[in-house]
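WARN no homologs supplied; continuing
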Amino acid sequence: MAHWQSIAGIDCITNIVDDSETCVVLFHGYGADANDLAPLEGFLDREQKASWIFPQGPMEVIIGPHMTGRAWFDIDIQALEQAMMRGEYRDLTQAQPPGLDAMSEQGEEFLRQLQKNHSNVIIGGFSQGAMLATAITLRAEKKPEALVVLSGALVNESQWKIWAQMENLQGIPLFQSHGENDALLDPKQAVQLFQLLKKAGMKGKMYQFKGGHEIPPTILTQLNEFLKNIIL
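OK structure emitted
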């Protein structure tokens, strides 16, 4: 049964399966919270073969009148909205988002804690959560079993390239998806991320779909197949 738990200082919704070697972690996007991706467990692991963890971002952010959500690190909302109004994308490849380094460092410790009890830890996320999962994977000494990038993008390219060259990513399974009509994060910057990870030795596919900033049923079906091969 799912319950709240703190792991390496990060509050999470957890559903731990006794004696399971595999643990799947999904980080939510900006403005959402731990509950946002939790329903995916029932679709992606119907036989409950893996433990599932849905972390909650430490930052509280305003997403509307009398409405708040959570985030992992700061983003320039005003610049993002202005770019969208112009029908353009912000170039995030050169951005160094405030708080991402500190959060990914804490994420490394989070991953280490999970790896003490699970031999196979899969990490991933949606949007900002996908960026965090990627940063953790790039800088972690002991790599996760696989990486899932849902509507993510390449940020801080110069640093990520250094990490990708220094750390052993050879053969680690990668699942990446992105909407061709994503108005928030540039599909081209997502492709750049995929190319960086593939060049570093990760193996996998990028699934592009006709849609926006979302996780459509077709992608969930593909992700289900991807996870099945690892969980089994």
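DSSP finds seven helices and ten strands in the chain.
OK
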